[in-house]
């Protein structure tokens, strides 16, 4: 009986460590804005899913999307439960577009597309851009190298 329990524990440990139960370590990056505000942003593993189905986002948290090249990447709010600000950044981490207080959507959702190409996108709590005076051309600082 002890051998069965020990073997079961070993199998559970191996499955958990190997990620076969769907667990993956989440990467984060600390993004700092010109006013000194910092956002701890989770790096999106699934760009299509992002923050879908989540119940909330804490004040200084966000979701960070990194793309291989500059482009006009569209975002929508399908299956979201709370509004967001969406901030597009170029390859130098300069703000090139902002959509403020974007509402959740379930059916026939609009797609928000930046006016200029971007390489990165940061989703944060609604009204963040206004509350922290984030504007076009502002520099955002990442605490570590971002890899797509």
Description:
The chain is α+β, with helices and mostly antiparallel strands. It has a single domain, classed as Jelly Rolls. It has two helices and seven strands; from the N terminus they run αββββββαβ. It has helices spanning 2-18, 128-131; strands at 28-32, 38-43, 61-71, 84-89, 95-102, 118-125, 141-142. Strands 5-4-6-3-2-1-7 form a seven-stranded mixed sheet. Strand 4 (84-89) and strand 5 form a beta hairpin. The radius of gyration is 18 Å and the shape is globular. The protein starts with a helix and ends in a 6-residue tail after the last strand.
Topology:
Elements: H1 2-18, E1 28-32, E2 38-43, E3 61-71, E4 84-89, E5 95-102, E6 118-125, H2 128-131, E7 141-142
Parallel strand pairs: 2-3
Antiparallel strand pairs: 1-2, 1-7, 3-6, 4-5, 4-6
What kind of oligomer do you see? Answer: single chain
Structural class: alpha+beta
Q: How much of the polypeptide forms β-strand, as a percent range?
A: 25-35%
Give, in order, the helices and strands: HEEEEEEHE
Radius of gyration: 18 Å
Q: Determine the number of helices (DSSP H or I, runs of at least 4 residues).
A: 2
Shape: globular
Q: What are the segments in which pLDDT stays under 50 over at least 5 consecutive residues?
A: 3-24
Tally the structural domains: 1
């Amino acid at each position: 009986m002890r051998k069965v329990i020990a073997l079961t524990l070993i199998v559970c440990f191996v499955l958990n460590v190997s990620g076969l139960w769907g667990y993956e370590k989440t990467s984060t990056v600390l993004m700092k804005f010109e006013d000194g505000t910092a956002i701890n942003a989770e790096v999106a593993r699934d760009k299509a899913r992002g923050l879908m189905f989540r119940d909330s986002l804490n004040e200084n948290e966000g979701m960070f999307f990194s793309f291989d090249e500059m482009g006009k990447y569209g975002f929508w709010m399908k299956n979201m439960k709370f509004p967001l600000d969406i901030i597009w950044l170029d390859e130098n981490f300069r703000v090139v577009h902002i959509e403020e207080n974007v509402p959740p959507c379930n059916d026939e959702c609009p797609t928000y597309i930046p006016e200029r190409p971007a390489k990165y996108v940061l989703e944060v709590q609604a009204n963040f851009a206004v509350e922290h005076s984030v504007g076009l051309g502002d520099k955002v600082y990442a605490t570590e190298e971002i890899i797509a």
